[in-house]
Amino acid sequence: MKTPARNCLTAGALCFLSLLSPAEGRTWTNTQGKTLEAEFVKLDGQKAVLTRAGGQTVTIPLNQLSEVDRNFIAEQGTGAPPSNPADNYKQPWPRTVKCPDNFKVETIKEEKGEYIYETPHFRFICDAKLGAGMIKRLGLLFEATHLANKTLPIGNIPPHDDSAKFPAYLYEKFSTYLENGGLEGTAGIFLGTTRPGDRGRILVPFQSLGVKPMGSTYIIDRDKDSTTLIHELTHQLMSPQAKQASWFCEGSAEYVAMTPYAGGRFNFGANRSHIVSRVTEYGKKNTGGRALGDDFEAPGLEAFMNMPYTQFTSENANLHYGLAALMAYYFYHMDGKGDAQRIKNYMKAIQSGTSEKEAQKLLLDGRTYEELAKEIEQKWRKAGVKIRFRASS
Predict the structure, then answer these.
(1) pLDDT of residue 184
(2) 81, 239 in Cβ contact below 8 A?
(3) Long-range contacts of 382-386 (CB under 8 A, 24+ apart)
(4) What per-residue confidence (pLDDT) applies to 56?
(5) Distance, C-alpha 31 to centroid of its chain
(6) H or E element: which one contains 295?
């Protein structure tokens, strides 16, 4: 689960872009096409500071500026990232992603009730002591998930200019997990934020980590997997723009989490059967899954792709999550020539500030929602899954 983020202009930004009178200087354009004449002063974190001819200072979040404006700021030597910090769209889809295990796990604090460890990109805080082997295993899982998300060629990665660690809170008791923001019926949760530069945090109870108690410490439980942690980490690693649509936000997280993982390696080249198994049954090792069966009815496609998050996580959440995983796989591997080109075009538009509804036109690419639904049904039927989208109302 997660708290969805929205890319929208603040009231103040709307006011200055639409009401202030023109002045000499460079023309700046926001993501809604409104313009402003002003001079660039400096970069303040993730905000551009501008000055109008009359001396007025205006501050604009970078993600509310056009791609041209963001690239202009980057060229000033300020260190501001371009719209897509790691443009990996032209890279081939990886078959496997292997994270080296020679990174350092640093112990920050070990006191009763608080044990803190850091890897190159993460800080995880535990309320109970874990063994050295378990700490290394978790660190490898964290770093491998970071590398996997960074490697997928869809531009869905966090800004690379921010050195802040991604925080994760791991709780020995489920009751403590609930007390700190977890929810009943969940195996983990991502708590997002709208504050600039804040990484948000994930909360996961030990029972979802694939560990079990052994004396005074914890060891690996071979009967459990780590899909929950991978799912929540993927949410934390997503670029904010990618969280507009429930189906993509959750579907892309499910896609990574359902990909076979072992010892720091994600096997994307062999993930279709695992995804199908976890969506239609209870998983390869009967350790969890959506259990939708291989023949099920789904909401109308247009309604599903524009479903509010509160509805997505309602009583039919299991269906929605499973369908979202199949949708992500379809656009990554089955759509068009199988080169993920339409989803890449969609992501590029989202990253540049295009609204979700407009960006979906790039996924449709001249097709109606009904025509796209038929194509999705046909492709998945050949793979052994019969999806029956309801007719649009």
Answers:
(1) 86
(2) no
(3) 383/272, 383/276, 384/276, 384/294, 385/276, 385/279, 385/280, 385/294, 385/295, 385/326, 386/294, 386/295, 386/296
(4) 77
(5) 21
(6) strand 295-298
Three-state SS at 114: strand
Rounded distance, CA 210 to CA 220, Å?
6
In the structure encoding, which two tokens stand for residue 314, read together? Answer: 């309602």
Residue pair 220/206 in contact by the 8 Å Cβ criterion? no
**What is the token pair recorded at 42?**
């400096």
Query: In 3-state terms, the chain is what percent helix, strand and coil (to 5)?
Result: 40, 20, 40
What is the C-alpha to C-alpha distance for residues 219 and 133, in angstroms, rounded to an integer?
8
Closest CA to 284 of 258, 317, 246: 258
Q: Hunting for tokens 């390869």 — which residue is that? A: 284
Phi, psi of 172 (to 5 degrees): -65, -40
Let me know if 281 is exposed, middle or buried by CB neighbors in 10 A (0-12, 13-18, 19+).
Answer: middle
Helices (H) and strands (E) counted in the chain, each on its own, are 13, 17
Instruction: Map tokens 């770093």 to a residue.
Output: 143
| 223 vs 210: CA distance, rounded Å | 8
Query: Residue 288 has what DSSP assignment?
Result: -
At residue 197, the pLDDT reads 59
C-alpha to C-alpha distance for 127 and 107, rounded to whole angstroms: 14
pTM of the model: 0.74
The single-letter DSSP state of residue 391 is P
- State the 10-residue block means of pLDDT for the chain, 393 residues long: 33 31 62 80 76 77 78 57 57 92 90 92 90 85 92 78 77 93 85 68 84 74 76 86 88 96 94 95 64 95 95 92 98 96 93 90 97 98 96 75
Contacts 24+ apart (CB under 8 A), 69-72: 69/28, 69/29, 72/26, 72/40
Q: What is the DSSP string of 322-336?
A: HHHHHHHHIIIIIST
